[in-house]
C-alpha cells in the first residue's frame, strides 16, 4: 500500500490522493498557477525587417543565418569562384548588405582592391565586393560581388 500511495501522490500540493489519511484542512492549499503576463507593446520585439525584399515569384538566395534576401538568381554570373572559406558565387548585384573599407588583396587571380560585405541584418561577413582589378583580364569583376556558398540558402521555386 505504501507503493500505491507513492503512485497516487499529487505532486503540486504533495497530498496523497485517494485513501489519504491526512485531514483536508491539514495541508496548505495548493498555490494557484502564476498569471500569464502580457508584455506591453513597447517591450515586444518588432518583426524582422530588411531594407529590400525580392519578389516571391523569383528564385532567390538568402542569408543562411537570418534569411535576409541577398540576390535574385538572374543576377548570378558564375558559380566557379573561390571564397576565403570555400566555394562562392559571383553576382552582378546584391541587396541587404553593407560594405567595409576597401583593401588590396592578392587573390588567386591576381591583385585586387576588395571590400568585405556583410549581412545588414545579422552582420555576418558573406564575402566581398570587387572595387578594382589591376589586371586587364580581371576588369569584368569590378563592381561585382562574391558571396560564399556556406552563407547562402536557395529560396522560392528551386527544384
From TrEMBL:
Keywords assigned by UniProt, alphabetized: Metal-binding, Zinc
GO molecular function, one term: metal ion binding
Cited Pfam families: Yippee-Mis18 (PF03226)
InterPro entries membership: Yippee, Yippee/Mis18/Cereblon, Yippee_fam
The UniProt record lists the keyword Amino-acid biosynthesis: no
Occurrences of domain Yippee (ranges): 59-156
Top-level taxonomic group: Eukaryota
PROSITE patterns the UniProt entry points to: YIPPEE (PS51792)
Stated family: Belongs to the yippee family.
Protein name in UniProt: Protein yippee-like
Organism whose genome encodes this protein: Panurus biarmicus
Taxon lineage: Eukaryota, Metazoa, Chordata, Craniata, Vertebrata
Gene behind the chain: Ypel4
